[in-house]
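3.2 Worked example (two chains)
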Amino acid sequence: MKIFYKVLTFVSVILFATVAFGQTKVVVIPMAGDDLKPLANIITVAKQNGDFDNPLDALNSITGSGFSNPYLVVIAPGSYTVNAPLEVPAYVHLTGSGSNQTSITVSGGSNVLDETAALITLNSRSQLSSLGVRIISTNAHAIGVYAMPSSQAKVSDVAISLSSAGSLNTVGIYDDEGDMLIENSSLNITSTSATNRIYTGLQIYRSSTRANNINVRVGSTSGGAMTAVLVESLNRETPNIINSDLVARQNGGGSVNGVINQSTSRALTLRHSQVLANATSSPEIALDGELIVISSLIRGPLGPNSSGNTKCVGSGSATQSSFLSSNSLEALDIDCST
């Protein structure tokens, strides 16, 4: 008997992810082949009828992932709470149904500010996308997302909110020699009890971090040290921040920094971005190394102990004296926007 046609039956998961400029990305993932057998290395998480009902169990089920054996973990719309930190294994992509459709709440932290304080850890070539992530710090130190050294991990369309009432150090994303790519994402760190506390949106250590279209907001109503972007140290690395808004605010006493570059050997480059350090006292940009500003706008005077240089690429120019000439946030300190 001749077969004139063959019907291919498959089940698909459609993910709607809102990205920059209001575009809608539709991802169709076939969950079964033409023989109705599940495709290998695709794991689903859902309130009902998924392989797992929470992301923690799904990630913990993965063994042997790698370059020739990648995995995709797809989380259906809904809110999920996990009772332990999440570790995304190497070559595993953890994705939701959009940052406003799928949310994960993770609580924890550590008594030491290192990878043990991470609530989500990204390993080699792992990815995090299309998710809302709520981090609740319950210990002395907390890191929302931590990229392991040499990981080259990617974060895309992820909205991270981190709240803390008493942690000594709180970091939204920590790129630890990982050469991360972060795009179309937001970091929102807030505290109502920040006296003698340190809060940082994006922290970079010896990494050529690439951040494109990120929105960083670090704020407190009761003091503490607030920093939107902190570069600890660079060797040969050249981090770049593009098309982004970086804001540090507070209404109490303490320091507020839009950008800090502590490296004396390499520059941090800002392109088509805006930096704002806003406080009742001492808003500043702190530089030990160089800050290259390309078609960007910065408000906030240079810190009094800064020894680095600022290079304005474009029609304008910026020097230390132009920073120091104004102690008021109302004045425009660097304008390389033309």
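3.2.1 Second chain
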Amino acid sequence: MVTQENILYSRSAAFRILQARLAKWGKLACILKLFRMPNGVFNAVYSIRFGDRLFVWACFLSLKVFKVHFAERRKEEGQKMIVTPWKKEEGFYSVLGSKGNVYHVATTGSHLICNCEDYKNQQQFLKGRRCCKHGYGVLFHLGFNSLQDYIDSGGDPSLQF
């Protein structure tokens, strides 16, 4: 179940973050424990394999690292989406999801709206801007590189700098 805490800060997110950071040193085996410190930073206790030996280490992960990972992962997945504009409705798109489901994305000058669970969870738990992978797929289809570029242009790709 998605909660206020685990939508951004999860063991699986910590695993992906550390896996990318530690690839040159060894193979990350698992995140044994992830807990939030009183100052808001997360402590990740993990095991890493060097050859045939397994070691347990710990490190701190900032809230910003998790937030950047959250957006970057959706951007990466959005690049793989197949986007089809609706013929009779401007600003509406059908997006073929990674598991074969079709999602509907509507664009406005300031944000995107999608009918997927991820977007609904972001609406419920996150403040500020939100964008799921289907939304990023539409942004890339329209020629934008980020949600901020879209917002800055008012949704008009010809106004990009």
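3.3 Remarks
The helical segments are 11-22, 63-78, 117-125, 133-142, 147-153.
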